[in-house]
Amino acid sequence: MNDVADAAAASAAGQAERLKLTEIFLSLQGEARDAGWPTVFVRLTGCPLRCQYCDTAYAFHGGQWWEIDAILQEVARHGARHVCVTGGEPLAQKRCLALLEKLCDAGYVVSLETSGALDIAGVDARVSRVLDIKTPGSGEVQRNLWANLALLTARDQVKFVICSRADYDWARAVVTEHRLPEVCDVLFSPSATQLAARELADWIVADRLPVRFQVQLHKLLWGEEPGK
C-alpha cells in the first residue's frame, strides 16, 4: 500500500513540473520594448480567447509535455540573454508561474506576453509583463480583467492591437482614463489585415498621443514562416 502511495505521489510531483509547449525557437523579438534583440521564444499551448485577428491559432491545440528543467536546458542551448514566454495564453497553464521564476533565477531577461484576461498578480516581479488589452475589434473586449491595470509597474508594458478608427478612439480613451503612460510603456499596433500602419501612425501623431507605435518586425522580415 505504501509503495502504491509513494508511486502516486512521485507521479503527481513529476506532473507538477510539466508544461504543454507548442514550440521553442530562437528569433529576433519583433515587438515591444525589446524589439530587435535575439530572443528565445517559449510558446505554451492553449488559449481561452479567440481574437478574430489571432496569428497563432496553431497553438490552441496539440503540443508536447515538457519538464520545466528540460525547457531551461533547451533555452540555454540557444545562447540568448532574452527569453519571451508566450502562447496562446501562457497563464492559462498555472505552472507557467514556476517557469517564469526559474528563468529569472537563471539570469535571463524575461518577458511574458499575456492577453490581460487572466490575473497577473502571481507573476514574478522580475518579469516584464506585456499586457495585451483587447479592443472591441478583437471580438474579446469583454474578457479584459481591468483589475490588472492596478498591478502594473514601470517594468511592464501595455499593448493595444488596433483594428479600426473606432478601436483607436476606444484605446485612446482607456489610455487617458487610466493614465497609462505615467505607469509603463504603452504600445499601439495596427491589425495587419484590417488597418494600414501609416493610418494608425498618422492618428497617433495628430493627437500627440504618448504611446509607442509599433509593427511586427518579424513579419516584415520573415512573413508567416514558422519558428520566426
TrEMBL record:
Signal peptide: none
Entries under Pfam families matching the protein: Radical_SAM
EC number: 4.3.99.3
Free-text cofactor note: Binds 1 S-adenosyl-L-methionine per subunit. Binds 1 [4Fe-4S] cluster. The cluster is coordinated with 3 cysteines and an exchangeable S-adenosyl-L-methionine.
Lineage: superkingdom: Bacteria
Gene Ontology molecular function, alphabetical: 4 iron, 4 sulfur cluster binding; carbon-nitrogen lyase activity; magnesium ion binding; S-adenosyl-L-methionine binding
Assembly, per entry: Homodimer.
Protein name per Swiss-Prot or TrEMBL: 7-carboxy-7-deazaguanine synthase
Organism per entry: Thermomonas haemolytica
